[in-house]
Each structure stands twice: as structure tokens, then as C-alpha cells.
Amino acid sequence: xxxxxxxxxxxxxxxxxxxxxxxxxxxxxxxxxxxxxxxxxxxxxxxxxxxxxxxxxxxxxxxxxxxxxxxxxxxxxxxxxxxxxxxxxxxxxxxxxxxxxxxxxxxxxxxxxxxxxxxxxxxxxxxxxxxxxxxxxxxxxxxxxxxxxxxxxxxxxxxxxxxxxxxxxxxxxxxxxxxxxxxxxxxxxxxxxxxxxxxxxxxxxxxxxxxxxxxxxxxxxxxxxxxxxxxxxxxxxxxxxxxxxxxxxxxxxxxxxxxxxxxxxxxxxxxxxxxxxxxxxxxxxxxxxxxxxxxxxxxxxxxxxxxxxxxxxxxxxxxxxxxxxxxxxxxxxxxxxxxxxxxxxxxxxxxxxxxxxxxxxxxxxxxxxxxxxxxxxxxxxxxxxxxxxxxxxxxxxxxxxxxxxxxxxxxxxxxxxxxxxxxxxxxxxxxxxxxxxxxxxxxxxxxxxxxxxxxxxxxxxxxxxxxxxxxxxxxxxxxxxxxxxxxxxxxxxxxxxxxxxxx
Length: 503
Prior knowledge:
Elements: H1 10-14, E1 30-36, H2 40-51, E2 56-60, E3 75-76, H3 83-90, H4 93-116, E4 121-130, H5 133-148, E5 154-156, E6 167-177, H6 179-192, E7 196-199, E8 203-206, E9 212-216, E10 219-228, E11 244-255, E12 267-270, E13 276-283, E14 286-297, H7 304-318, E15 323-335, E16 341-344, E17 352-356, H8 362-378, H9 383-389, H10 395-421, E18 434-439, E19 442-449, E20 452-457, E21 468-470, E22 475-477, E23 484-486, E24 491-493
Parallel strand pairs: 1-2, 1-10, 2-7, 4-12, 10-17
Antiparallel strand pairs: 3-6, 4-6, 5-6, 8-9, 9-10, 11-14, 11-15, 12-13, 13-14, 16-17, 18-19, 19-20, 21-22, 22-23, 23-24
Helix pairs in contact: 2-6, 2-8, 3-5, 4-8, 4-9
């Protein structure tokens, strides 16, 4: 197997959103609203509050769109694979309809915004397809769930795909976007309204009371409220990290001979496993095919690189002559009841808000979360948000949560046992390889990337899980709650807020 290079999304390669550097952060100052995270949720919330006259500062630990939004497949669709039938297994039809209503409002708001700001996007038919009899049965359940939620889906056997299907359901007039262009428009409007986006400043904690003390990697500020738009909340109040499961999935972009005539023009997603997602992406000199899939729980895949290469091989099988141009990965969080958590953080005095658990549908759920949080702050009543905020826990929710946390416990115990039994290598690992073992009575992680060998603590700084090497992204990933760290120990994403210490 070849040593992988760094993964980089097509979106981040086409546009960079201007933002202020960390040097413009003023410790000790007062901000009306601090928003942690400059992805779609954070910037939509910021613009909505700034329009209402609120003073808004967005703090981003890395760069605008660096995490979920800049690494999505960016389908703005109400047809979401088999998500709606899964929601229906856990929740009432009233909750199902509220979930779809929120997504519909998020979709409408985003596309209207792009129209108003002349940001290009493409209208497409969304298709969920099956290739097995079991997949066709799940499609029928999804069709019934869509109909219960008021979505006019159609059953068909005909698709543009280069292989046979056992069935498909379609929903017309959906959309696909370049998410970085959307973030650029939002950031520009926020600046026009007097708000600020600052990169390189990580929110690490918050106090209680009013005003809030918001602690960051560059000092503290006071704020009237804090919005956590960080994928998973970086404050452990409420234990949301234990109510979510973190998943990582991959996407590749290809040039295909004869495109666009030789590639499907719809947005496709499989009902069977392993998952396959397809869409097109216009570029200056043609149109690319985007293929996603092969997802896995964070830190629990034996070889993410093998999964990425399998996705590449699948594409070349069905689209002869395809040449890869980009490869990237995204992280998503699923709640036990499959409905996002959006609202006020417990033990925050009503001044800390959060949004998480989009289950791979952040383009619509992320905007819906921004609408709901801004409405909550400004005193607006949104019926679907009220329903989602007051849903009850069902037996299916409890069972899913028990399974998720049993897996966490197993990986916690197994990781420590494995690290304790393996002595750490004394020689330098080969390029692109990372190893965990015991040295001087503690677990140590050793890797070599770009010719540099780093020895770090192998213990996640969140809740002490033993890290696993991600050979596709050359990172240390935690199998407990999805925290990730670069080869040099720098924290990348997840609930952890501290870097890994060097050994």
C-alpha cells in the first residue's frame, strides 16, 4: 500500500474565506455573543443575530470551514438516504414531521440566501437506491416515512447508474452547493453588519452567570451568551459526548472521460452497505464526479486507508478511466434518537446554546439549528423547534444509547489492555505509520510523518481513551467520543480541548 498524502477537500481547494487572525482577539474584552465554530451553523446563527442588532464574535480554532462544513458532500436535500424511516422507528410521526419541517425551512433559507447573494448552486433530483432485496425493503419503509412526512417521493427502477438496482425513490428539485462559497457570503455579510470572525482561537471553557467568562486558547473574554457550533459540544455539561456516536466517512473527486455525459447528474445515495454517495461538481474546465462512502466509527477502523482505496477501486470499476483529483474525510455525530440536539446547554444559566447530532445532513440541519438558536435568543417561537426540543426518550432510544456506550466501554478497556501489553518500538516507524505501546509505565503513541518522528501520550485528553492511528489521514483518533489529533499532538476536532503532551 502506498503512503497517503494529506487529504484535502475539493471545496477548500477552490475558495478560502477571508477572516481575521488570532492577533485581533482582545483578551478581557466584552462581546455580546461569542460563537465557537465558523462552519455553517455558526455563521448562519451569527448573521441572524447580527441582523437583529446583536454584537457577534465568531471564534474558530482552525480556519473557516476547516472541519465539517468544508469536508461535506454538500447535498442540500430532504431525501436523506434511509434516515426518515430510522427516525420513524424511534419517534412519533409528529416528531418526524417536525424534523422534516426544520430541514425544509433550513433548505429554503439557505437556497434563498444563495440566490440573494448570487452564489451559484445546482438544482438536482435526489435519489436513494438499492442493489439488494434487503435494500429494496428498506427503501419501501423509507418511502412510507417520506409520505408520512409530506415528501412527494416517487418509486422507480430507472436510474443513471452504471449498474442494476432493485429499486429507487426520487425527490425532485433538491440542490447541491459548494459549501465554502456559502460560508464566504455569510462571513462577508457578518462583517458588513459589524461582526467579527477570528481564526486560530479555540474556545476551551466557560463560567457561570452573567456575563459569562468564555475561556479560550488566547485568554478570556466576557459575553452575554455563548453558542457552541463545534460539531460536538466542547463543554461536557449535559454529557452530550456520551449521547452521540462519532463517525468518519470519505469522499473522492474524479475526472471521468466524456463527462458530464458519462456521469450521473442526480444526487445518489445507497440504501445498502457499504454506503455510496454520488454527485457532480462543476469546475472551471468541466465537471467532476464526487463519490463518498465507507464510513466507520471514529478510531475503530483497522485501516481507514484501505477503506479509501476500496472506494477508489469501486469508482474506477464503474467509471472506466476515472482519475482522482481530491480525497478528503468528514466527521459526523449521530444522536441515540437520530434527532439533532439543538437548544440551551444544561447548567449554563440559559446563556449557553448548542447544536449537534446532524447525522450526516448538516447542510439542512445546520441551517435549521441556526434558525432555532437565533429564534430562541430573540424570543421567536418556531413550532417545529419546540416539538424537537420536547421529544420524549423512547425504548429504541435507550437501546441505541446502551449499545453505543457499551461499545465505548469495550474500547476503553481494550485500548488500555492492548497498550499495556505492547512495548513501544524503540526504532523509528516507517513513513506514514503510527504505533501505540507501553514505555516507562504509560501508553505512548509514536508516528513518523513527513520525515518527522513524534512521541506523544497515547491517552486522549478528553476522557482517557487510548488513541488509534488513522493511516489515511495520519492522525491519532479516539475510539471513545471522536476526538482527533494531528501527528504532532495538535487537537483537530471532537470534545477534547487540549493537545496531546509530548513524551
